[in-house]
Amino acid sequence: MKYKFTIPGKPRGKQRPRATRSHRQFYTPTETKQYEAMVRFISLEHAKMLTGPLRVDIIAYFPIPKSYSKAKRKRCLSGEEVPTKKPDKDNIEKIILDGLNPLYKINKLTHHREMWTPGLYKDDSQVIAGETKNCMVNPQGLKS
């Protein structure tokens, strides 16, 4: 069975964890948490929790910069020229795959990890195959 969905907006990469000033505690940046939550929400509109090994293919559509000439735009649209800027393939994969994971919180009374929001799969270790491509499209082709 295939599931296909689109995450609106410009592709984002997973940001590095940040540390507090005293360096005693690390946290995930708010922008990363919000993007992962959006990925989780959109994916759950299409399917419930999946089991077994999975293949995840990702196509990241980047807008063509307005400063590009007509010839360069044409090369971008034909696939001759691809985006080689940030975010890179690895960070795009990380933020999408982490967004498809369930969100867990620690119960302060029992000190156990409990599922707060379900994900598309139980853990990203279920993903055994996949491909990530970066492509360029006209800015009008991006949904926001």
Please explain how this structure is put together.
- This protein has 144 residues and is α+β, with helices and mostly antiparallel strands.
- Helices cover 25% and strands 24% of the residues.
- The protein has helices spanning 30-44, 70-78, 89-100; strands at 18-19, 26-27, 54-63, 103-106, 113-117, 127-137.
- A two-stranded antiparallel ribbon has the order 1-2.
- A hairpin with a 6-residue loop joins strand 4 and strand 5 (113-117).
- Helix 1 (30-44) packs across helix 3.
- The radius of gyration is 18 Å and the shape is globular.
Percent helix: 25-40%
Main β sheet profile: 2 strands, antiparallel
What is the H/E order? EEHEHHEEE
Question: What general form does the structure show?
Answer: globular
Q: What share of the residues does DSSP label as strand, in percent? A: 15-25%
Distance between the termini: 28 Å
Number of strands: 6
Number of helices in the DSSP assignment: 3
Structural class: alpha+beta
Poorly predicted runs of 5 or more residues: none
Q: Whole-number radius of gyration?
A: 18 Å
Mean pLDDT figure? 87
Strand order of the largest sheet: 1-2
